[in-house]
Amino acid sequence: MKPKLIIFDFDGTLCDTRQNIIKAFLATMEALDLPMRDEEACGATIGLTLRDGFAQLYPSFGDAELDHCVFTYRRIFAEHREEYMPELFPGVREVLDRLYSEGYSLAIATSRLTDSLMLFMRAHAIDGYFSFVVGADSVTRHKPDAEPVVRCLEHYGVEPSEALVVGDMPVDVGMAHNAGVRAVAVSYGNATRAELEASRADAIIDDIRALMDYAN
After folding, report:
1. Element (H or E) spanning 170, and its range?
2. Of 147, 144, 140, which Cα lies nearest the Cα of 169?
3. Given 11, 52, 168, 172, the catalytic residue
């Protein structure tokens, strides 16, 4: 069925934020004199909330330690906002423009805070394509829970069969499937193809422009 609503992840799907996120993680570790984790471990947290990401990196940390990590990360990111400004992946603007012009409803469901998301979207002038966004601060249950997608479905008044989720991580696929929605995974983001295959994505594409094959 042709979807009415397409729900995009942001990091690793629309915008190449990987190295900037890793830089901020490493800078946080240095600032707090934490045991260092490598880039692969940091990259594996993308798609999770910051708190869940730090919990994955430091399983023994309690609530106060995790809160301090998150606070420090956000302070560092804010101080280096211009340096950490990411770039859109090739073809993203072209695809968003085409989908918007063809009348699709477009939304974002991300583990990024809404203010940070809107900053990046406005910097790249893509905010006008999206009439609804769900950030980490908009829900109580995060990916792979269905809540972010359910919020989008309710906002637009569409059925799960009328929607499509596009993301780069298994948590995006899990979020979609938990809401009864199909998921298209992009292979150029932060997960390997093997991880995406194991997540049982309904389709895997190597270029965002191939999304048009599933939207029509």
Report:
1. helix 170-178
2. 144
3. 11
DSSP H/E element including 65: helix 63-79
The pLDDT assigned to 116 comes to 86
How far is residue 213's CA from residue 47's CA, in Å, rounded to a whole number? 25
The structure tokens 């002038």 sit at 125
Catalytic position from the list 9, 16, 52, 168: 9
Q: What confidence tens digit (pLDDT) does each residue in 66-111 have?
A: 999 999 999 998 898 778 788 999 999 999 999 999 999 999 999 9
The closest alpha carbon to 10, from 151, 160, 180, 186, belongs to 186
DSSP SS3 for 205: strand
CB atoms within 10 A of CB 33: 7
- Under a CB-based contact definition with an 8 Å cutoff, are residues 48 and 66 in contact? no
Catalytic residue flag (residue 11) = yes
CB 142 within 8 A of CB 52: yes
Beta bridge partners of 6: 106, 164
Which among 96, 133, 130, 116 has a CA at the least distance from the CA of 212? 96
Query: CA angle 36-172-112, nearest 5°?
Result: 55
The predicted-structure confidence for 117-133, as pLDDT tens digits, reads as follows 999 999 999 999 999 99
166: which 2 tokens? 């596009």
